[in-house]
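Hi R.,

Here's the chain you asked about this morning:
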Amino acid sequence: MRTAAFLLLSIILTIGCDENYVTSSDQFESEIDESQVITLSAQTDLIVENTNGNIVISVSDTASNIYCDITKKVRSRISENDAQSHLSQIDITIEKNTANVKIEVDHPMNDDRDYEISLDILLPNNFNYNLNLGNGNVFVNSTTENLVINLGNGSVQTDVILLDTCFVSVSIGNGNMNLIIPDSTNADLNASVGNGNISNTGLNFQNQQITSRQFTGTLGSGVGIIVLSVGNGNITMNKK
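And the predicted structure, written out as tokens:
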């Protein structure tokens, strides 16, 4: 559905439901692709709750609804048939409220199987995002005012234009983060790592304060807020 954004995350969606194969000496895998169209009225916020997989957000000036490509994957330690039969146990719930759309992934917890769900979402520009993922990768390419990402283990890349009075909070337990924003952004930034490095390329911060684990500074008028946090890993900031 899209091109460049997905290469950044190496999301390979090539295996159909009828194709099962052994991924290791003790695992069998089955995969199916689905798609959904979520009709919008006046919603401006997107909430995503996922456990394992990827979340890819991209926008289109011509989109009037939300288009979601879904890849469901089950890895079984029992058999090929077991992996395929449990694809139906993955439940994608879509809830539309007055201001937001919520996409929530649910699946059983079982020592004999691993579940992975990747969401490739195309929607109108200028949405606000609250994205929550246990393990995997998150990529966001959008114009937005509010962006909240919580990731347990994996990587985050955001190539965004932030509106004035923006609020951005990106948190990773273990992994790496790459924030790409214009130098014209107006926000106070606070980036911190428990173990890792923080680097900046091209962004003209005022009032910089830098230590081995923390970076603070102001872009433009500083009316917005950007908070970046990584437990173990690196934070890179780049000029768009």
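DSSP finds two helices and 14 strands in the chain.

Let me know if you need anything else.
M.
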